[in-house]
Amino acid sequence: MPPPRGKFAITDADFKLFLSLWNQRQGQSTPDIHFRIANWLEHAWISGDKNLLLMAFRSSGKSTLVGLFAAWILYRNSDLRILVLAADVALAKKMVRTVKRLIERHPLTAHMKPDKPDQWASDRFSVKRMMERRDPSMMAAGVTSNITGSRADIIICDDVEVPNTCDTAEKREALRERLAELSYVGEDQSALQLYVGTPHSYYTIYARGPRVEVGEDKAFLHGYKRLEIPLLDERGESIWPERFGAAMIEQMKRQSGPNKFNSQMMLRPVNIAQGRLDPALLRIYDHELDYTKELNMLFLGQTKLVCASAWWDPAFGAASGDRSVLAIVYSDEEGRCYLHSVNYIKISGADETDEATQQCREIVRLAKQHYLPSLTVEINGIGKFLPSILRNEMARTHVPCRVQEVANTRPKDIRILEAFDAVMAARRLYIHRAVSRGAFMTEMQEWRPGTSRGHDDGLDAVAGALSLQPVRLKRIYGAGGHSWMGAAQNHKAKTDFKI
Q1: What is the pLDDT of residues 261-296, one digit of tens each?
Q2: Dihedral of CA 314/445/267/226: which sign?
Q3: Is 49 left (phi over 0), alpha (psi -120 to 50) or beta?
Q4: Domain annotation covers residue 80
Q5: Which of the residues 159, 238, 434, 456 has an alpha carbon 20 to 30 A from that of 286?
Q6: How many domains is the chain built from?
């Protein structure tokens, strides 16, 4: 539909001009990487390509650009219908809302806003158009949503692959089955399909070649026209240096670790089987905990500790093969982590007390010994009823340690790799010499992700402790008022003068 008389009258602007006008209105310049993506999208649209894959590093602005592309398509042909699919409907709605705001505020599209408010909803909208159509101009849906009966001319799959949709073989298979059905949404099965995202698994849907080990004879997106833009070029230099300078990239590598950086910033699918942990990256220390009552601080040698995290992964019965493990990690002001204790909890057969209570009493003893202000219990399976027993034992012995509960749903191998990857690559994980001589080190040396051989209970517990965000609790430790992780306490001084 052409703009009304007296309005901005350009009716055939190319996408680069459309993009530039929007950025000018926002008071922003347009980086070269965005012009590169815009050129590719426009050329593919004009050429009539029906299958497209855009992979660009995290925070590159690819979803924003695709939203602008959708607005531009409607500007060029208001009768088209666009379906946005994402891992969950909230993410898809985010893009639809963005396109709505673009249409309202862009100088070339403001006239397209409909007169009826019911055509301008948060998850779907229809612009002013010549044809009467049952489906809206743009609609949002989650990848698992029921879209039976919907029709679209363009299907945008924006981040349909995320950890929650691809971290197990069953989820990856379900995702592929769901996406394979999208051809029925297109009119005469000829809709343009545009995938936008980054790989989150070695078995990613974006892989260039087939993964024969899982039965693929060709890549899932075989035949798709691809544009891949990693953060670093072939010379190792940033392709967007104004935003991602050398110092920022180094910081990202330290914080995310090599596996995640390669996956999300360099677009290289990471094979979990290649992500073994290297004990040579660990640093050994011998110092014991030293709580200084006068300073109300906890030290390792001369190092002041600022927070602690503890994770208990419980198990019952040695015959089950699993071991009950409590891992305790401290950190200092420089962000270094100290794996101080990995305790494989054992019970006494001579003790008539039930096994759950015996384990909880041992955990309480360790919490007191290590000045723990909080402790997290993994409640999957048998752990569901343990927190209440543990809290009772904490109260009975007057140990002021808070008990938190966490249920893990992600695969253990991925949790371990993500927890250890960054801190070990940065050489910031220190372990006590006693830990280095125990069963934990054997687990690390023998661990092979993706297999069921060997023990990994200690690794899993330490991964949980490393993954916990530091929590500085105001709760005091001990009857004497010690609170080495807490804020400064008020003190009322005695004086011998009157005012």
Answers
A1: 999 999 999 876 676 788 989 999 999 999 988 888
A2: negative
A3: beta
A4: yes
A5: 456
A6: 2
DSSP per-residue letters across 49-116? --EEEEEE-TTSSHHHHHHHHHHHHHHH-TT--EEEEESSHHHHHHHHHHHHHHHHHSTTTGGGS-SS
C-alpha separations of 461 from 105, 290, 329, 406 in Å: 51, 24, 10, 12
CATH number of the domain residue 316 falls in: 3.30.420.240
Provide DSSP, 415-444: HHHHHHHHHHHTT-EEEEHHHHTSHHHHHH
Higher pLDDT, 478 or 104: 104
Question: What is the pLDDT averaged over residues 462-477?
Answer: 66
Work out the end-to-end distance of the chain between its first and last CA atoms, rounded to an integer number of angstroms: 81
What is the structure's pLDDT at 4? 54
Query: What residues make up the domain containing 154?
Result: 15-229
Decide if pLDDT at 481 tops 90: no
284 and 183 both lie in a single domain: no
pLDDT tens figures, 37-75: 999 999 999 999 999 999 999 999 999 999 999 999 999
Q: Are 430 and 279 spatial neighbours (Cβ–Cβ below 8 Å)?
A: no
219 and 332, same domain (yes or no): no
Per-residue CA distances from 202 to 157, 272, 408, 498 (Å): 19, 7, 22, 74
198 lies in the same domain as 295: no
* CATH classification of the domain holding 129: 3.40.50.300
pLDDT, residue 121, reads 92
Strand duo 82-86 + 154-158: pairing: parallel
The count of other CB atoms within 10 Å of the CB of residue 218 is 10
Reported as half-sphere exposure (CB side, CA atoms, 13 A), residue 137 has a value of 29
Kindly state the tokens that stand for 461: 């517990």
41 and 100: one domain? yes
Which phi and psi angles does 415 have, rounded to 5°? Answer: -60, -45
